Amino acid sequence: MTQPIIAILRGLTPADALAVGQALIDAGIDRIEVPLNSPDPLESIRLMATAFGGRATIGAGTVLTIEDVARIADAGGRMIVSPNTNPEVIRETRRLGMESYPGVFTATECFSAIEAGATGLKLFPADQAGTGALKALRAVLPKDMPVYAVGGVGPSNFAEWIAAGAQGFGIGSSLYKPGETAELVASRARELVAALPA
């Protein structure tokens, strides 16, 4: 079953990609991003997209340019996550048939992202914005536009963010740190999924 979590695997290496990816998918987390500031991220994306493309959405994070978008598409990625709102990147992502999750913090950024064709919005850094900001944004955003809270969110405050209007979460270092075993990632992934409100 698909869970409303995007796993952020910053620092993942190609050697660990398949084992970690499998651990996440087995726990029900089937949206996986490899930030571009990881070691050889395109190879990790290629490996996971080839192995798991039919069961998971594999993509890249920290995507800043349209050139990056093209390289990720060539590697088999189907999801682009950015820390910022760049309409050019969003439009190119959508033109190539990929999902686009740009980073937003203000109403202006939200609506710029929506106008450019974003699939969903990444409220980042969520802990700095706070649930009050999300509630205010949700009052004016289209009801069908998903917002993922990213940065400082976790099991202790999932319910609070969902009550404020979050549809999902991006989870990074509390799920994966470079060099950790797939078994540890699997355990953390199961705990995260169990902590989601029913």
Automatic annotation (TrEMBL):
Keywords: Carbohydrate metabolism, Lyase
Family named by the database record: Belongs to the KHG/KDPG aldolase family.
Pfam families noted in UniProt: Aldolase
A GO molecular-function annotation: 2-dehydro-3-deoxy-6-phosphogalactonate aldolase activity
EC number per UniProt: 4.1.2.21
Pathway(s) where this gene product acts: Carbohydrate acid metabolism
Higher taxonomy: Bacteria, Pseudomonadati, Pseudomonadota, Alphaproteobacteria, Rhodobacterales
SUPFAM superfamilies: Aldolase
Protein name: 2-dehydro-3-deoxy-6-phosphogalactonate aldolase
Subunit structure: Homotrimer.
